[in-house]
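Re: that chain you flagged

S.,

Sorry for the slow reply, it's been a week of failed gels. I finally had a moment to sit down with the sequence you sent. For the record, here it is as I used it:
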Amino acid sequence: MAGPLSHIRVIDLSRVLAAPWTGQNLADLGAEVIKIERPKTGDDSRAFGPPWLKDRDGKDTSESAYFACANRGKKSVTVNLSRPEGQEIVRKLAAGSDVLLENYKVGDLARYGLGYEDLGRINPRLVYCSVTGFGQTGPYAERPGYDFMIQGMAGLMSITGERDDLPGGGPQKAGIPIGDIITGMYASVAVCAALAHREKNGAGQHLDLALLDSLTAILSNQGGNYLATGVPPGRLGNAHPNIVPYQTFKTSDGDIILACGNDNLFRKFCEVAGCEALCADPRYATNNKRVENRAALTKLLTDIIAKRATRDWVEALEAAGVPNGPINNLEQVFQEPQAIARGLKLELDHPLAGRVSLIRSPMRFSATPLEHKTPPPTLGQHTEEVLRGVLGMSDEEIARLRVAGVI
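Prediction finished late last night. Pasting the structure tokens below so you have them in one place:
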């Protein structure tokens, strides 16, 4: 069977991005992921368009590209959780599942008898993963949390963007909802770790993942810089706080990234650029001195790099072993020979769009290779399949639930 989690069943009660990203990771790893959605409307992100997926004639479908980016490999089942019969369906599914994902407000599912304590009594082996803005505890626990506001609260925007004294200066969010995505990644790791723990003692547990915690955790070297000095770092645009030169520069016809991660690479760059004297200058000979004299060196390098074209720099620096690269737009990303060789663009058959293009999972396994076969589901596409095949319901029971608006 394909994928290391092909023996795992996941109930995904989440919507939009952070927890659905977790569910997609688990589906990529081979798990059977059953996505529970509201009848008629489904996951909120189904309405996050345009853009919409196109059909074979190039016309818009009802499926948003946003929803498609985080829900491949899943089965969609529509269930009205406000109805007792709908709650019972989820309980029965949870009883035979390994993992449950949810991103409701703290305490919301408990009102329906679907909290961790409720389902843990039914299935003590259940790994129950809750994803919220601020976690299950603390003074902000009941606040709603959205990626944009978390990027500000977690400090990311204080270190992202151009310096305030330069044109275009000021705080910037990341170009993607990085708080949602990194929380989904941490949740994926936590779920797999909890499943490994369950293999030893047979017990599931409650996982408490928060956007604020996760985005703060990835402050990495910038967080370390602050904790070591007590001085909050500021924005440096595309420059690195601890390494110089490690930033973008204008060429004669575009831009290039120069990443001299050590003194030897800086020396090699100077040889390519014909400015070997800089390596002998005590102000620039070592990285710590280059950081101290960042402004003066950056001005010198700006003038030097502006004299040659991007392609000339890329070829010369590549030949010398100096890390560098162009700044690609997304069209250029998928045209990169390496991206093509690695198959980063994935195409799957889709019931409405004909074919849907997605980004392949970066996880590669030698013994349990991943197989991408199932496209993002249409709303309720698998309701009858799951109710009949997993819960053993009859056609008459399913018809009754549909008429009653439960599914």
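What I noticed first: The chain has a mean pLDDT of 96.

Talk soon,
D.
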